[in-house]
Amino acid sequence: MANVDKCIKCGKCTRNCEFLSKYNLDFSCKEKLYNLAFHCFLCGKCNEVCPMNIDCMEYILELRRKKINENKGNVFEKEYKETIVEKTNYPFKNYDQSNAKVVFFPGCNFPLIYPETTKVIYQLLKDNINAGLAIDCCGKPISDLGLLEEENKIVNEINTNFKQLQVEEIVVACANCYYFFKDKLDVKVTSIFKKLKELNLGKKIEISNMNIFTPCQDRVKQDWLNDLKDFLPEDYKTTNLGQCCGLGASAKIKEPEIYNKLSSQFNNFDEGNIFVYCASCAAVFINAGSPIVKHVLTEILETKENVNKNFTI
Ligand code: SF4
Ligand code: SF4
Predict the structure, then answer these.
(1) Confidence bin at 34 (pLDDT 50/70/90)
(2) Considering the domain 84-198, what is its CATH architecture?
(3) Can you give the pLDDT at residue 82?
(4) Average pLDDT of the chain, as a whole number
(5) Which residues, including other chains, have CB under 8 Å from residue 195's CB and lie 6 or more apart?
(6) What atom in ligand 2 is closest to the CA of residue 10?
(7) Whose CA is nearest to atom 4 of ligand 1?
(8) Which of 86, 88, 188, 241 has minimal CB crowding within 10 Å?
(9) Which residue minimizes the CA distance to atom 1 of ligand 1?
(10) What confidence tier does 117 reach under pLDDT thresholds 50, 70, 90?
């Protein structure tokens, strides 16, 4: 278990989190956190600000798993049924074109939100390195619900598929897939930005007043931001932007008001452009009404694609 006993009650996590501040919690409030474990967005803002380096996000995930075990799954009933059905056996799963050394794995949300950009990436990788394509959900949404057994099943199946197809490397377009797969799969996992850089593809974004909104999974390690840097103008900023988009860990079911606040946080932003490198963040902010949010890949690859408005969050 993540060691929350080190918590010195400094309040930094509370001040930086809509969920913790709503209930006036920090990570010494074990019982209340257990009861509210499914209200947390698993965004990792608490990890980012904690002076004691407590893995707060992992702690909440452990509480979710504990809750599932103790309640034999009954914590779910109807609320998460749709997510569980869709993500445990992803309906658009397709490995027909995956027989290659390097395979593009766009994940579940990216191809639905940016279908044209997905096609452009696949074509570029196919033309340059004869890459294959695998469509599936990585299993992170199921993992976030604390469903460890189902999570292991999904990862084992994906690992087996890649082994049978003799895949050596996958290129991912989503930071969630990247961090989730990184230590679980037997294949090499590479970010799309690293691969584009390696192949000398894509153009540097030349724009002033660029703010980069960091997705949850990349907050602390920042592998993706490092891979992306070569495509960004020298003076881009990542500071003083909000907590998260609100989509993570199915918490909006429990906290719709917080979700509405987080998703519309850039609607009146007037300090430049907001660029994201997570398709889900883009869909959430744009569909909530922000006119200035863009995904970096639509600029780097010059597809200029807008989010698919039919994509429902
Ligand atoms: S993971 Fe995010 S929502 Fe959950 S407690 Fe930490 S900062 Fe708050
Ligand atoms: S930021 Fe860390 S030390 Fe401070 S209250 Fe939160 S968990 Fe405790």
Answers:
(1) very high
(2) 3-Layer(aba) Sandwich (3.40)
(3) 84
(4) 93
(5) 125, 171
(6) 4
(7) 40
(8) 188
(9) 42
(10) very high
Residue of 29, 56, 257 with the most ligand 1 atoms within 8 Å of its CB, for mutation: 56
pLDDT tens sequence across 206-251: 999 999 999 999 988 999 999 999 999 999 998 768 899 999 998 9
Residue 232 beta carbon below 6 angstroms from any ligand 2 atom: no
- CA 287–ligand 2 middle distance (angstroms): 33
Distance 18 CA to ligand 1 centre (A): 8
The sheet with strand 169-172 has its strands ordered as: 94-97, 132-135, 102-105, 169-172, 188-191
Ligand 1 surroundings by CB, under 6 angstroms = 17, 19-20, 40-46, 56-57, 60
Ligand 2 atom with the shortest distance to the CA of 49: 1
Give tens-digit pLDDT for 134-157.
Answer: 999 999 999 999 999 999 999 999
> Helical H runs in the chain?
12-15, 18-23, 30-35, 45-49, 56-71, 81-88, 109-113, 115-129, 140-144, 148-164, 175-182, 192-198, 223-228, 256-263, 279-287, 296-300
**In which band, very low, low, confident or very high, does the pLDDT at 79 lie, cut at 50, 70 and 90?**
confident
Does the pLDDT at position 169 exceed 90?
yes
Long-range contacts, 192-195 (Cβ 8 Å, 24+)? 192/121, 192/297, 193/224, 193/227, 193/228, 193/230, 193/231, 193/277, 193/300, 194/227, 195/125, 195/171
pLDDT of residue 267: 93
**Whole-number Å distance between alpha carbons of 254 and 115:** 30
